[in-house]
Amino acid sequence: MEDQQHENQGNDQYQAPEPAYNQYSEANVPPQQPGQNYSQQPGTNYPTGYHPQPVSAVNGGYRTMNKHLFVWIGAFLLGGFGVDRFLRGQVAMGVFKLLFNWITLGIWGLIDWIIAMVKAYGEAYGNVEEIEFDPTGAYTR
Question: What domain range includes position 107?
Fold first, then answer.
């Protein structure tokens, strides 16, 4: 009997319990690299500090992002393709802008960039680094 205990001691490795499934899919869990261990939150199958949430549940549907990235990358560089509208959560308007911005000869993208500049660097968001949009994609200030 003691021989069996000694044999099992070398092979006793902790086996993680089967994950409890909840409203979030396992696709939202960051992949573990071989040899990398995450500590688990009690009662969940997510690593500590990881809280997956659908976008609509984050801040009650409000979206925040760095204003410099939004203005210069989203609106200036990629605004002609509607990326600024996608970032704001206005998917239909982003697709519409992607398909029809060429009709306005790029003026639609230029106007959206000017509006983003005035909002982000003007009185509304001038002293903060984050810009916020409500659930409809409108600026909150």
Answer: 63-133
Which residue, chain included where needed, has tokens 């200030």? 141
Q: Rounded distance, CA 83 to CA 135, Å?
A: 17
Asked if residue 12 is part of any domain, the answer here is: no
Q: How far apart are CA 88 and CA 134, in angstroms?
A: 8
Query: Amino acid identity, residue 139?
Result: Y
pLDDT tens, position by position, 48-83 = 555 555 454 556 778 889 999 999 999 999 999 999
Cα-Cα-Cα-Cα torsion 60, 65, 67, 70, nearest 10 degrees, comes to -110
- Kindly report, residue by residue over 14-41, the tens digit of the pLDDT: 666 665 555 445 555 555 555 555 555 5
| Segments in the chain forming alpha helices (H) | 2-11, 67-68, 83-88, 91-100, 107-121
**The token pair that represents 39 in the structure block:** 């500590």
Residues 6+ apart with CB under 8 A from 32: 38
Give how many domains the chain has, as a whole number: 1
40 in helix, strand or coil?
Answer: strand
d(CA 71, CA 74): 6
